[in-house]
Design the sequence.
C-alpha cells in the first residue's frame, strides 16, 4: 500500500468550507480523510459527498454505540453514503457488532454497492489508566482490555479495530495480517513527547499499523503540507 494510502487526516473542524480547503491543500499527500462527530454534526452527509467529488475517500468516525437494532440501521445509513470506512464501539458487544456487519453486507449485496470497512474502537487514546480503572471501572489491564475487545471484533466479522500504537504489535501477533489496525494518537517525530498513548508514524507502521490518523500535531505545524511530505518519507523508510 502506498504511503499516502496509509495516512488519514482528521478534519476536526466545524466548518464545511474549512474542511474542504484542507482536503484541497493536502490531497497530494493524502487519499483518506476522517470526518468525525464535530464536522458531521455541523455539516451532515453533504460534506462526505463533497470530499468524494474531489476523488478522495472518507472514514466516518462517529463511534456508533447503541442497542444492536439502532446501530445496525445506522450502519446501513452510513453504507448508503458511500464510505470507505466507518467506526463503531466494540464495547457494544458481540451481538451489536455482528448485526451491524451482517446488515451492511446484506445492504451492499442488495444494492450492488461497495462495502465499507467497519472498524471497532477498543480503548480511546485520551484517558489515562487511572481514569480507565478508577472512574470507568475497567477491571483488567489496558492491554488485556484492548486485546479482548479486538478478538471480539474479529469474531463479530468486523474488518479491524482502532487501537493505540502501543497495542499494535500485540494485536498483530494475535490477530494476523488480514485484520486492519487504525492507529490514532500519532505525533510527528519532531514534536515534543507527551504523556498520552502516542507514537510516531515510523514506530506505528513498524509495529504493524495499517493506517495512522494525523490531527493537530501535524496540521498545527507552520507548513502542514511539508509536514505530511516528511511523514510520507518516514513511512516509506520504516
Sequence:
Amino acid at each position: 500500500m502506498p504511503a499516502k494510502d496509509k495516512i488519514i487526516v482528521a478534519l476536526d473542524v466545524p466548518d464545511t468550507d474549512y474542511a474542504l480547503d484542507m482536503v484541497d491543500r493536502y490531497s497530494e499527500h493524502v487519499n483518506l480523510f476522517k470526518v468525525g462527530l464535530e464536522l458531521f454534526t455541523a455539516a451532515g452527509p453533504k460534506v462526505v459527498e463533497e470530499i468524494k467529488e474531489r476523488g478522495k475517500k472518507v472514514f466516518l468516525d462517529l463511534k456508533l454505540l447503541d442497542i444492536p437494532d439502532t446501530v445496525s440501521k445506522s450502519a446501513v445509513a452510513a453504507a448508503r453514503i458511500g464510505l470507505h470506512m466507518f467506526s463503531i464501539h466494540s464495547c457494544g458487544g458481540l451481538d451489536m457488532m455482528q448485526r451491524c456487519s451482517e446488515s451492511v453486507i446484506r445492504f451492499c449485496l442488495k444494492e450492488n454497492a461497495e462495502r465499507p470497512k467497519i472498524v471497532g474502537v477498543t480503548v480511546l487514546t485520551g484517558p489515562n489508566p487511572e481514569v480507565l480503572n478508577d472512574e470507568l471501572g475497567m477491571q483488567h489491564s489496558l492491554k488485556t482490555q484492548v486485546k479482548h475487545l479486538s478478538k471480539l471484533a474479529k469474531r463479530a466479522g468486523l474488518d479491524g479495530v482502532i487501537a493505540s500504537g502501543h497495542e499494535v504489535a500485540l494485536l498483530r501477533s494475535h490477530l494476523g495480517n488480514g485484520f486492519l489496525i487504525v492507529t490514532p494518537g500519532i505525533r510527528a517525530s519532531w514534536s515534543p513527547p507527551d504523556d498520552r498513548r502516542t507514537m510516531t508514524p515510523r514506530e506505528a507502521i513498524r509495529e504493524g499499523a495499517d493506517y495512522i490518523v494525523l490531527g493537530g500535531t501535524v496540521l498545527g505545524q507552520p507548513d502542514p503540507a511539508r509536514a505530511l511530505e516528511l511523514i510520507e518519507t518516514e513511512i516509506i523508510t520504516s
